[in-house]
Backbone:
């Protein structure tokens, strides 16, 4: 066990013991007004839990999904706006201060008149650079420049923990270079993919025309780009295979890399990136790199230039003038995701600041909006959830003592991060000007790229965060064995200082349990307590675990959003194990928290157990546009909201008991089909 992890965990345990839960009678229960009482909880719990809220709160035109949770996420942006407008109004902020950086970035973004007046001027120096390349060797140097501003095509290099030596960071070379959401969009014969390809070609044509091409050359250019990307898609792994860590685990020497793709100027590239060639390297997809190499060798210089210009335009469209923003939205927002209108400019500017300067903005956000009591209460819940996971694993009769011991070691090294990083990124050298939004975006991107690249070849920095503090989400990282909860998710309806425990355990408790369960899902189970990609299971236990996973995959294979559009059980397996395990251990932790205390009274006619399940339905349930659901089914490892409520709960005996459901009720999976992992 690494001592650092242990000491962090110990500190968390000690701290949380000080702040035990207090529960006054003024605390509220679930949202009774959201319930659809015409639906039966044992028939359709999704409808019962929040059907009335959804009926009364149509999805706003600028959103793909809507629920109290999404509403809270958008409300956080009002807070960001406050912070940003205050910073932007401060004319005397010292250069390099947080106020100057976020204030000027936001102010420049909000200056739509200037952005529009500049049109595509800011891109022209980049186009000129691409045009100036006399041969493919010179163009590869331009490609490296584009990688510096996060236009990382057709491959990408970034930092990644070494799955065999997780205390160290290696250079990871990954596949990139597609603009449709995923490889199936290029290759599958179904009408909906064919249509997406036609729309995509029309979209590329429109963007090239905006950038100065005539109709004929734009249309021909779009076909060329589609051809190059289709070849790259053919050589890419599908999204189910990509979930298998072993499928992308290819330790490679520099000499092997040169042999794998001999027409790529690797020496030049590494020199540009200031990375020594004896650095530890991983190539995610060797077959993809072979295709890149083939195209470097056989695709004409003119076609490569066209492809790079398109990728650049596509990547920076939202930082350009209105016609580019609108065309980009028409395809990616409206057509692919079903969104009806663009978000207001201030919101896009706040989101963009969060994306590029997230820890500067986040610092201001947590100062104002994240009370220390919230952190203390979260630490208490995380401690209880980890204890529940420990009990749960120990109680599983199918798992041998040997594997259990290894699992306990993994639980003991779990590192929870709550709210915001202990150490903030230093943006003081990022050059941000009030009058140059495009250049500001480029500066922010360069900072992000270098900040990542600087990790390569060094010991891992365990303090880094993969999400910004205002983000309304959470994650698990198997290499660091950490669960991370940004301040943004620690607000109602996920987490409510004024709600009873039943409600908090049913919402944020299940989220915490979900993240912990990721440590023991189809992917997380392959990493040991030190974050090494190494099998720690006995063969028999692994076989049993996989059969349990297959039950969940089969359950989700049967869920569909439209007649012919089913979930892919294997794609959503990790998230579904997370939800099933999360609900199980959060319920267990809640029960345990009641031990030795008088039983809490029912509220609003619901028992504490019923409140727990309603809280999950109300937090997790949402309304999602049909287009966005199609996109999710194809690309997202998370199931759609409806099945994240119905799926796990219909497996749980505790749910059946809480609602007195008959054995043949729709919310009760029949005995032989019931899935049970954790
Ligand atoms: Zn998850």
Residues:
């Amino acid at each position: 066990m690494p001592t650092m992890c242990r000491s962090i965990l110990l500190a968390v345990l000690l701290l949380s013991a000080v702040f035990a839960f207090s529960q006054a009678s003024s605390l509220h229960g679930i949202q009774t007004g959201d319930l659809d009482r015409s639906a039966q909880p044992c028939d359709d719990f999704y409808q019962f839990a929040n059907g009335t809220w959804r009926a009364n709160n149509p999805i706003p035109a600028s959103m793909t999904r809507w629920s109290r949770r999404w509403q809270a996420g958008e409300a956080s942006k009002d807070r960001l706006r406050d912070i940003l407008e205050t910073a932007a109004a401060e004319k005397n902020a010292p250069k390099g201060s947080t106020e100057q950086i976020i204030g000027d970035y936001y102010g420049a973004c909000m200056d739509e008149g200037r952005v529009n007046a500049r049109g595509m001027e800011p891109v022209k120096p980049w186009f000129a650079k691409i045009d100036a390349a006399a041969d493919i060797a010179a163009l590869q140097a331009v490609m490296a420049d584009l990688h510096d501003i996060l236009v990382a095509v057709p491959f990408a290099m970034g930092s990644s923990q070494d799955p065999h030596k997780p205390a160290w960071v290696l250079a990871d070379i990954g596949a990139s270079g597609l603009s449709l959401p995923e490889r199936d969009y290029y290759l599958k014969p179904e009408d909906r993919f064919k249509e997406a390809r036609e729309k995509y070609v029309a979209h590329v044509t429109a963007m090239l025309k905006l950038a100065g091409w005539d109709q004929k050359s734009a249309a021909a250019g779009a076909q060329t780009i589609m051809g190059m990307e289709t070849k790259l898609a053919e050589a890419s792994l599908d999204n189910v295979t990509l979930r298998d860590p072993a499928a992308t685990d290819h330790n490679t020497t520099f000499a092997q890399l040169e042999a794998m793709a001999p027409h790529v100027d690797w020496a030049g590239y590494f020199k540009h990136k200031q990375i020594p060639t004896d650095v530890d390297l991983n190539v995610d997809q060797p077959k993809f790199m072979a295709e890149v190499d083939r195209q470097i060798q056989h695709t004409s210089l003119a076609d490569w230039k066209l492809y790079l210009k398109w990728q650049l335009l596509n990547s920076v469209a939202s930082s350009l003038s209105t016609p580019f923003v609108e065309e980009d939205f028409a395809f990616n927002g409206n057509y692919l995701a079903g969104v009806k209108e663009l978000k207001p400019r201030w919101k896009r500017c706040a989101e963009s600041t969060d994306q590029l300067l997230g820890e500067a903005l986040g610092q201001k956000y947590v100062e104002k909006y994240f009370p220390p009591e919230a952190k203390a209460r979260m630490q208490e819940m995380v401690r209880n959830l980890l204890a529940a996971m420990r009990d749960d694993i120990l109680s599983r009769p199918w798992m041998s003592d040997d594997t259990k011991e290894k699992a306990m070691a993994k639980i003991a090294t779990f590192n929870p991060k709550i709210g915001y990083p202990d150490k903030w990124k230093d943006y003081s050298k990022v050059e941000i000007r009030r009058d140059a939004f495009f250049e500001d975006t480029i500066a922010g991107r360069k900072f992000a790229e270098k900040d990542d690249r600087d990790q390569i070849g060094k010991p891992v920095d365990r303090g880094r965060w993969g999400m910004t503090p205002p983000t309304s989400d959470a994650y698990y990282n198997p290499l660091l064995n950490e669960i991370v909860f940004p301040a943004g998710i620690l607000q109602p309806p996920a987490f409510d200082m004024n709600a009873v425990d039943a409600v908090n355990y049913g919402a944020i408790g299940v989220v915490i349990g979900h993240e912990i369960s990721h440590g023991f899902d189809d992917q997380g189970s392959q990493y040991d307590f030190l974050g090494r990609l190494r099998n720690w299971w006995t063969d028999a236990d692994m076989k049993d675990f996989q059969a349990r996973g297959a039950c969940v995959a089969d359950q989700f294979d049967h869920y569909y959003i439209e007649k012919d559009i089913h979930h892919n059980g294997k794609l959503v397996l990790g998230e579904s194990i997370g939800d099933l395990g999360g609900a199980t251990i959060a319920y267990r932790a809640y029960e345990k928290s009641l031990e030795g205390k008088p039983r809490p009274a029912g509220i609003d006619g619901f028992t504490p157990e019923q409140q727990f399940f309603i809280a999950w339905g109300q937090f997790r349930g949402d309304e999602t546009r049909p287009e966005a659901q199609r996109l999710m089914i194809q690309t997202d490892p998370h199931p759609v909201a409806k099945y994240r409520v119905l799926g796990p709960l219909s497996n749980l005996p505790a749910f059946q008991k809480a609602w007195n459901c008959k054995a043949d009720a729709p919310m009760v999976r029949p005995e032989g089909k019931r899935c049970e992992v954790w």
In short: The pocket of zinc ion is lined by residues 514, 518, 575, 578 (CB under 6 Å).
